[in-house]
């Protein structure tokens, strides 16, 4: 019979692992199978790129575009930025909505 764990418990285990606690220690301390913990890491882990929500990804793209614009306009980098390449990156697939 499989054990039911709350979402809060699962997230706590994931946070403990992300803070540096090895899976084997979590297995011993909490009595959860290591395969179960690895599944939770995939579902709830913040360190995995595929766990970034679409909204978070769009926000990161927007922030990157704003950063690149500020960098391009900065007096410190004048002459160091290839304008054509810069414009290509801003209009490329990374910035399409």
Automatic annotation (TrEMBL):
Pfam (any one): HTH_Tnp_1
Keyword Oxidoreductase: no
Single GO term (MF): transposase activity
Keyword entries, A-Z: Plasmid
One GO term of the biological process aspect: DNA transposition
The UniProt record lists the keyword tRNA processing: no
Protein name per its UniProtKB record: Transposase
């Amino acid at each position: 019979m499989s054990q039911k764990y709350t979402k809060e418990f699962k997230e706590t285990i994931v946070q403990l692992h992300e803070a540096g606690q090895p899976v084997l220690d979590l297995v011993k301390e909490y009595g959860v199978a290591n395969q179960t913990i690895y599944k939770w890491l995939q579902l709830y882990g913040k360190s995995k790129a595929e766990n970034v929500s679409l909204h978070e990804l769009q926000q990161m793209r927007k922030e990157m575009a704003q950063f690149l614009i500020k960098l391009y306009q900065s007096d410190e980098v004048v002459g160091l930025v290839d304008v054509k390449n810069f414009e290509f990156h801003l209009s490329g697939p990374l910035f399409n909505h």
